[in-house]
Amino acid sequence: MARLALRGIVRDYGTLRVIHGIDLDVAEGEFVVFVGPSGCGKSTLLRMIAGLDKPTGGDIEIDGIRVNDRSAAERGLAMVFQSYALYPHMTVRQNLAFGLENQRMPRAEIDRRIADAARMLQIEHLLARKPGQLSGGQRQRVAIGRTVTREPGIFLFDEPLSNLDAELRVQMRVELSQLHKRLRATMIYVTHDQTEAMTMADRIVVLRAGRLEQAGSPLALYNHPANRFVAGFIGSPRMNFLPATVSPNGVRVDGLDELALERFAVAQGAAVSLGVRPEHFEFVDAGGLPGTVDLVEHMGGESYVYVTLANGERITVRRPGQTGLVGGSNVRAAVLQGQAHLFHTSEGEAAVARL
Amino acid sequence: MIRFLTRRRGNWTDWLSWGWMIFGTLAMFVPVLWLVLSSFKTQSALQEFPPSLWPTGQKQIVVTGYDKPLPVFTVPLPDGGTAERAMVRRIGIELQVIDPAVPDAPLRRVKLAEAVPVRELHFAIENYLEPLEKFSFGRYLSNSLIVTITATAITLLINAMCAFALSKYEFRGRNGIFIFIVSTLMIPITVILVPAFLVVTQLNLGNSLWGVILPPAATPTGVFLLRQYMLTIPDELMDAARMDHASEWRLFWRIVLPLAAPALAVLTIFSIVWRWNDFLWPLIVLNREDVFTLQLGLASFQGELQTQWHYLLAMTVVTLVPVSVVFAFLQKYITTGIASSGMK
Predict the structure, then answer these.
(1) Which domain holds residue B317?
(2) What is the CA radius of gyration of chain A?
(3) A112-116, A259-263, B78-82: which is most confident
(4) Which of A324, B68, B161, B244 is deepest in the core (most CB within 10 A)?
(5) SS3 content of chain B, % helix, strand, coil (to 5)
């Protein structure tokens, strides 16, 4: 178990700056997920924490000690790679033992750790096989097992589930969460999948283009996104955005009537984006935003209704249960009380605070 | 078999390709077969004209009362038939023959023109035994083995180390160094023969097997072949091993080398064939007979005035055997290696 601190981390490739000064503290035992679209620098950041890449500027501290100049091995971390990076010419047992043998650990201790990890991850029957003879899920388990035997201060995961099929991914997500609870270990997990972030993280760190956009618990990010990017990235289906102008009693969505909202800390007449999550729309008989149903997706437990508003904007509405709406129906969508978000249209698209 | 050979009859391209392949096989195989069969011929049988395919010699027979085996002829009998008789001696154009079944009978005279030598299959194994005993060919063989095995081991190791550095480390001038190494392929050995020889003598490696082994140990071909293969080993494996506390040497020894095994096998074959067949460089470095390699030993049968063909052929077969065995065992790697590197 270890603490991690990043202080003003910068990374340049030639003249191109890919990480623009990241500050972050990770507490002992915390499960932190770095999430962002591809190319946002999350994997680079992880590799710098691991010691496989060097920051151009800033400090990396583990347990309060600066480790910038320590090699990957000396940092006491362990990593699960996207491709698993199992040694193909070694058996599973040799894969698990390799790192420990390199540390000249006594044979008995190595055997004990392998036995423990294999039992915990249910890979005992696979120990004599080679990685090529394993399925994707089994390889994943072995890769995790390799990190577990190391008993590292911090576990690092680089998109470990992206090569698995959907069903297995859900299952491994649960197992990883359970592993975290059992080991109470500090874990840093990189993914581009916001669902993985939401389901596993104690704290999500949203990155975009090498900048930290927002860090917080999954629900904090969901309920109070700091800007339009985070609002759109977290949550599935994504939040609906409508261009609007602030009016006396709420906002006037461009091309439509005024929509009554609570008060926001923004001047009247300002151009904003109105952000509403799909589940925060309801269909009403009068008022609201008029539109026509394009398509209804019946999931059974809930329904997704795709609506084209009278001004041509498209929105997605999630309704609980099943709905009798069909394509072509005329509907009016209203925003639930207190659930609207406003974002400045200026650079950064920061959220507008409620009054 | 017949069905297989005759089906799709009428498609002349099939016949053409079959014919071409059979021709190719014969063109490749007949000389080797000829070599092996000829290596069992006696010196006199080799000089015969017209030559025979099989190693034959005149039949010889031991007759009581005579120390040496006697050559056998078919001679006409007075009653008009023919019989096999052993020749005791030759006087001018007449032979004195004896019936081997009746050694006590008086000698009979036969005209040379009427006697036909009896030929039989005869393998002259002494072609093999004598050079190995008399001409210290065993020594040449062990010298060649030492050179080939040591040189191949060194070649594999240092070429792999060079290829590892060029494929897995980022450093300034990496591509420049690689291109420089590969460009030395364009320098023929005859150009560097003299300077290389001077270096070897200055290092007191003349007339020593190390002088043969060391100078050509680093080959641009090997570096190129191994580097191209190592580029396909994923870098994440390197990262994983580094996080697993592996030193850079261990990374090379435990991860990269085992994974480059197919390319190493190809280089092993090449190196063995090169070293085993190498003639020019050993000829220059070695001039004492006790350090000769097989190829030099073979050349020594070919004198200025006469060539001892029977020994030369037999020892050529001996030198072919190890390379053929290596090829037979590792041949599946050759095709993959050539396919992946585009070299031969």
Answers:
(1) 131-341
(2) 24
(3) A112-116
(4) B244
(5) 60, 10, 30
- CB contacts under 8 A, A 84-113 vs B, are 85-89, 98-99, 102-103
Q: Are residues B274 and B317 in the same domain?
A: yes
Interface of B with A in 257-276 (CB under 8 A): 258-259, 261
Domain boundaries, chain A: 4-233, 240-344
Same domain, B252 and B319: yes
B103-129 pLDDT, tens digit per residue, is: 777 777 778 777 777 777 778 787 888
Q: Are residues B152 and B265 in the same domain?
A: yes
Strands A31-35 and B94-98: unpaired
* C-beta atoms of B236 and A85 within 8 A: yes
- Asked whether A154 and A5 are in contact (CB, 8 A), the reply is no
Q: How many domains in chain B?
A: 3
CATH number for the region A4-233 comes to 3.40.50.300
Domain assignment present for residue B34? The answer is no
* Any domain includes B39: no
B263 in Cβ contact with B226 (< 8 Å): yes
Residues B199 and B224 in one domain: yes
Token pair 């002088």: residue: B211
Task: Give the CATH H-level superfamily of domain A240-344.
Answer: Nucleic acid-binding proteins (2.40.50.140)
A277 — alpha (psi -120 to 50), left (phi > 0) or beta?
beta
Instruction: Give, rounded to a whole angstrom, the gap between the first and last alpha carbons of chain B.
Output: 35
Q: Mean per-residue pLDDT for B16-35? A: 92
Cis peptide before A320 (omega within 30 of 0): no
Q: Which CATH number does the domain housing residue B204 bear?
A: 1.10.3720.10
- pTM flag (> 0.80): no
Tell me what pLDDT residue B88 has: 79
pLDDT in tens, B209-267: 999 999 888 899 999 999 999 999 999 999 999 999 889 999 999 999 999 988 898 89
Helix, strand, coil percentages in chain A from 3-state DSSP, rounded to 5: 30, 35, 35
Domain membership flag for residue B169: yes
CA dist list (Å): B41 to B52, B122, B137, B138: 10, 7, 19, 21
Of the pLDDT bands very low, low, confident and very high (cuts 50, 70, 90), residue B343 is: very low
Residue B291 in contact with partner chain A when CB distance is under 8 A: no
ipTM above 0.85, yes or no: no
Q: Are residues B72 and B183 in the same domain?
A: no
Q: With 90 as the cut, is the pLDDT of residue B72 above it?
A: no
**B44 occurs within a structural domain:** no
- Alpha-carbon dihedral of residues B82, B84, B86, B89, nearest 10 degrees? 30
State whether B139 and B228 are in the same domain: yes
Q: What is the CATH number of the domain that holds B117?
A: 2.30.30
Which pair of structure tokens corresponds to residue B41?
């011929």
Over range B310-332, report the average pLDDT: 83
Q: How confident is the model at residue B339 (pLDDT cuts 50, 70, 90)?
A: low
Q: Which of B236, B237, B245 sits opposite A103 (nearest CB)?
A: B245
Same domain, B220 and B288: yes
As given in the structure block, the two tokens for residue B31 are 């000389």
* A214 exposure class (CB count in 10 Å sphere: 0-12, 13-18, 19+): buried
**CB-CB under 8 Å, B239 with A73:** no
Last residue of a domain, one of B121, B141, B162: B121
Q: Is the peptide bond before A237 cis (omega within 30 degrees of 0)?
A: yes
